[in-house]
Amino acid sequence: MLDVAKMAVQAARKAGADYADARAGTDETESLTVRNEEMAGIDRSISTGIGVRVLAGGRWGFASTSRLDEGEITRTAELAVQIARAAGRMPGRPVTLSPVEPAVGAWRGPSTEDPFTVPLEEKVALLMEATRRMRTVPGLNYAEGGLDFFRRRTFFASSDGAAIDQEVTHSGGGIEATAVGDGDVQRRSYPNSFRGHIRAAGYEHVRTLGLVEEAERVGREAVDLLSAPECPSEVTTLILDSGQMELQIHESIGHPVELDRVMGMEEAYAGGSFLTPADVGTLRYGSPLISITADASLPGGLGTFGWDDEGVPAQSTPIILDGIFQNFLTSRETAPTIGRSSNGTSRADGWSHLPLIRMTNISIEPREGTLAEIIADTASGIFMTTNTSWSIDDKRINFQFGCEMAHRIENGKLTTLYKNPNYTGITPEFWGSCDAVAGREDWVVWGTPNCGKGQPGQVGRVGHGASPARFRNVQVGVR
Q: Which residue, 377, 364, 372, 367, is CA-closest to 439?
């Protein structure tokens, strides 16, 4: 397959490309869903092909194919060059790429137990038992469990001389309990919402999740929420659990620091950003407790790799340091516009798409203390857990998030249970109000396998290390 990628690059250069790269590869997926002890779906897919990207006359051209015979590869490479030349008739500045040392090597993500060779019967039995235990809770209507597995093998070659072979494996799962009554629907998820907890790992990760062991508790919480009061509307102290912090980081930090948004390259679909290049090193993004790092080498992160899809090596980049904004996420195309080199964040969701700027693993650095200690240190407030909804404007500054469950905090203790909690904020003000971030003990590397961006749309797989945190003077409930 690496020879196939090199063949495509040679064909593109012969057709007149000034620069060319090619990604040949295979994506393999498996998704299992059990609902109320019945099999709801087993989805499997495998996709193999090659994408050829070229620069000709300072403009991009891209073409892809699932047929890997020599004639088709040559045709696809020539088509990419023709597209680049056609793009040259459009207005705009020619593309300049930041330099990168051509890499030759191989990289494999961690996977002790191949999830695709674990017997199907074993996987199904796990989900059957988890849903059975949830259904033992009186008043529970629906019990669902799911497992998801993903493997990508990529072979990258470029006209600069790069030759890279790498493979990632992602595994995870979760359970969800739904209770219905008196015109109301309440849901509890574990270990997180939206298919649970997915890591860069093999099936060994699934064995650590405790889906069966936690099933009855999750079911009871869903039923209890039916009779709980609505979360009140007030301005108060807010504590978020690690899972909700994951989404807060993703939406209000990860996306606005993507430089293609700042340059207006994503505004038609995904939106822009409130940041500008002048903010680097000057803008106070959050309180001194907020330090955010983009680390493509983080163990377990869905944004972990050896090289990105432009052949740039994995890096760890400070995004926010002690509250001050430091760096954008950049590609070889966008980095030169701010006088920098790519920090290795350009990826595609497969061989058939162009790479674009993607989060790697965007994580908040842990501080001190535990979630329990932060709650005990809070005289009055609200604790929210597990995301259920989100909304944020196209500049990534005004947001509203909903959670599955909340508790009143009174004199350092969790008291009244609330349903349908939500909170709103303005990005720099919200992060500026943070006065506590839990330490390493409560820091979890979560996976977000469904991040949408690009035209045509692509689904990115990114990671977030997050600790619970406390924020002051936050609007909760309906204003």
A: 367
